[in-house]
Amino acid sequence: MAACLASAGGARAQSEILNVSYDPTRELYREINAAFSEEWKAKSGETITVRAAHGGSGAQARTVIDGIPADVVTLGIPSDIDAIANLSKKIPADWRTKLPNEGLPYTSTVVFLVRKGNPKGVKDWNDLAKPDVKVITPNPKTSAGGRWNFLAAWGYAYERDGRDKEKANAFVGSLYKNVPVLDTGARGSTVTFAQRGLGDVLPTWENEAFLVLEEFGKDKFDIVVPPTSIYAEPPVALVEANVDKKGTRKQAEAYLQFLYSDKAQAIFAKHHYRPIKREAAKPEDLAQLPEIKLFKIEDLQGSWDDIQKANFDNGGLFDQLSKAGR
Amino acid sequence: MVETLKPRRRFRQRSVIPGFGITFGYTLTCLGLIVLLPLAALVVKASGLGLSGIWEVATDPRVASALRVSFGVSLLAALTASVFGGIVAWVLTRYDFPGRKLADAVVDLPFALPTAVAGIALASLYAPNGLVGAQLARIGIEAAYTPVGIFIAMVFIGLPFAVRTVQPLIAEIDKEVEEASAILGASRITTLTRVVLPPLIPAVLTGFALAFARGVGEYGSIIFIAGNLPYVSEIAPLLIVIKLSEFDYAGASAIAVIMLAISFVTLLAINLIQAWSRRRFGYV
Amino acid sequence: MSEALTQGPLSPPTEAVRLPASVVTERRVVRWLLIAVALAFLGLFLVLPLLTVFAQALAKGWGAYFTAFAEPDAQAAIRLTLLVAAIAVPFNLVFGVAASWAIAKFEFRGKNLLVTLIDLPFSVSPVVSGLIYVLVFGSRGLFGPFLVEHDIQIIFAVPGIVLATIFVTFPFVARQLIPLMQEQGTAEEEAALTLGASGWHAFRTVTLPNIRWGLLYSVLLCNARAMGEFGAVSVVSGHIRGLTNTLPLHVEILYNEYNFVAAFAVASLLAGLALVTLAVKSVLEWRYADDLAAGARRH
């Protein structure tokens, strides 16, 4: 190991790091990576290539566990990084403490994308459970976005019905009865909804909803902002075991720090993510992000271990609901 | 090898042709390293659950339903491919019409076309706003994102097997047997069902089994066009991928082993059909 | 072959009896009906999807079409796909020839089992084909600790993609050659050897000419499959852009980036490859039908 470190860590004018990320961040990291390469070149004189791999958040975590040489992970939900820490020890269990704001350089939330003119009159989460509404959402087992949608719906009903777990479970059950297609990733769902024309409403990452408007045209879809939604936390972490082996710790750490820089924060806002340093972003980008009352799922359900186990693990709430709903 | 231990019977018959040792050894080495070792790793992983554990996975409602979808739809698709494949094979060998050679060449398309390409093409064709999908929607059939979509993809990949196994046999049918049958007073229908069809049955079964085996395992073309809905349109290979994303390696391996066992039985059945047909009809 | 039979001594004197056409073939209307059914079926299930690929690829004109290939990621995917096929296909070629030589030219026990095992990858789900290599070479797999210690990357790198590709195309050449070689028997080789030829010489001058078209045909199909494999490669690739994405994976990525024209453009490249494969194959069949017959039957 020491030999590897020495050989790989030697002074090179060129290096490469790999960012394993989740599905909807493709456009975001294309810009971030270019900006970082430029800054790193100016700072250290070294040419750096940041490679990116995208896919469903769970599937991506799996590749890290199985040995993809990722230097950093930027995933859709904290439990996926916990899984890497638990199953492979490549990331320390206390990864949340290593970076500012619990490893969250930006946050996001879930909004609704509907067809132009909102023909079904969708305004809030309860409209998604109405019998004549078809909802397109990804599989919460494989997709981080799918899990945020699930938890957002649950949290909404929990607060609405006086913090009654059973009622919240039942609400989520009736919502998922309205789902005709469960894609494996957020992107698959968007394609199903936007390109293939299925469904009336697509609850999705805020950034993804804006992207659809840009890609498919504002004349085809509207964004509906529900009064309350979830505080979605897509965290980042250093894959310590890999960077030590590859000798890329310096570059990878700099990359993660860069995500908290003013420049990166402005790029997040530009791509409709919610930067943690609002002052670094352009006002017109911020103006696009609507005011929503956001709740934190940890406040309702406890630790991420509990949240994952209760809802998405084998035999969890989602399994029970899909068994009951068939 | 068990065989070499028996002293009386030789493992291999004498031959003047050289190269048995090296080619046989090379074959076994490749087979062992590329195919058998990784498959053994799979069985080992799954056996960590024990037989009862594998049974538990297999009977888990979601897994059972995915297996049912994969095997059930594949059975239907293989049946459809066999019936229409039989007609296609018959038409291509027996009749002459303009464009016959072109049609013949097209049959192999699913062999050569990557499954992912087939998947996105079928999805855009059969989606509600697609060329065919819109027509189907008008008569109330939802094709894409339902089990019908899975069926379409499976027919697509299974068709060449159904055609290509039967076609050479139709070409080899001795026309004079048909003539003899006609001279003896049989109607055309009788000749077809009593004289022509029976020798084709093993080939039809082989084609059916191949299409079936291929359909059960198919992934690339299906995920684009199936709705991937648990209990409705979720196929077994997708469930393996999902289990992997949940870090449930043993569960994924268990489903894989179940599918593998069924594939192996299917293959064995094909070889038995061929052996039987060799005895019964003198050809495969 | 049927020609040989009809000229055989047992043929009845057919000239004596004049049969109306309707008893040896179907009535005209039935014939055309069947042709229509067959063509409609082929059109709907095979031709239409193929046309869709090209239609969608050119939906925004040739400019947009060619832009798809200017992308560095697309070019990296093309290079990787060629590299993988350049390793996997020759490997399976050598394996297929060796295996069919051992199986077709010699009699030994357990042959049927061996043939079935060679066939096995063919009926294994592509996803399972990828999974098994993860279980062997993944960090937590069979050889995981060893590989990690020695810093060897198999899965999520080129070797893993090559291995998975070899696995899914494993039976292609052998499957085609075994029946061909069996049909041709051993007499010719034996004669050559008796006349003093070396084994290698006999193979090159006697066996190879007999099987060359079958060989070419199987290599073509093997190549098409190797370049087009999706499921197995998807499990072991890791989807690193510009590094471990093959063409089919690149198609999926573009498709998921709402870049449908580019997705279908890259797909059309693979579809074009499929068409070339079919064209060469058809020409071979029309010209050398007899040489291929034995193989096609067992395909």
From TrEMBL, chain B:
Residue span(s) of domain ABC transmembrane type-1: 67-270
Transmembrane segments: 20-44, 71-93, 105-127, 139-163, 195-213, 219-242, 254-276
Topology within the bilayer: Multi-pass membrane protein
UniProt-listed Pfam families: BPD_transp_1
Cell compartment(s), UniProt: Cell membrane
Gene3D superfamilies for this protein: MetI-like (1.10.3720.10)
This protein's record includes keyword S-adenosyl-L-methionine: no
Keywords for the protein's UniProt record, in alphabetical order: Membrane, Sulfate transport, Transmembrane, Transmembrane helix, Transport
Assembly with partners or alone: The complex is composed of two ATP-binding proteins (CysA), two transmembrane proteins (CysT and CysW) and a solute-binding protein (CysP).
Similarity-based family: Belongs to the binding-protein-dependent transport system permease family. CysTW subfamily.
Function according to Swiss-Prot or TrEMBL: Part of the ABC transporter complex CysAWTP (TC 3.A.1.6.1) involved in sulfate/thiosulfate import. Probably responsible for the translocation of the substrate across the membrane.
Protein name per its UniProtKB record: Sulfate transport system permease protein CysT
Organism: Methylorubrum rhodesianum
Lineage of the species this protein comes from: Bacteria, Pseudomonadati, Pseudomonadota, Alphaproteobacteria, Hyphomicrobiales
Gene name in the database record: cysT
TrEMBL record, chain C:
Keyword Iron: no
CDD domains for this protein: TM_PBP2 (cd06261)
Domain of life, source organism: Bacteria
Domain ABC transmembrane type-1: 78-279
SUPFAM superfamilies on file: MetI-like
InterPro entries, sorted: CysW_permease, MetI-like, MetI-like_sf, Sulph_transpt2
Subcellular location as annotated: Cell membrane
Pfam families for this protein: BPD_transp_1
Known partners and oligomeric status: The complex is composed of two ATP-binding proteins (CysA), two transmembrane proteins (CysT and CysW) and a solute-binding protein (CysP).
Function comment: Part of the ABC transporter complex CysAWTP (TC 3.A.1.6.1) involved in sulfate/thiosulfate import. Probably responsible for the translocation of the substrate across the membrane.
Protein name (database record): Sulfate ABC transporter permease subunit CysW
Source species: Methylorubrum rhodesianum
Lineage of origin: Bacteria, Pseudomonadati, Pseudomonadota, Alphaproteobacteria, Hyphomicrobiales
Gene assigned in the entry: cysW
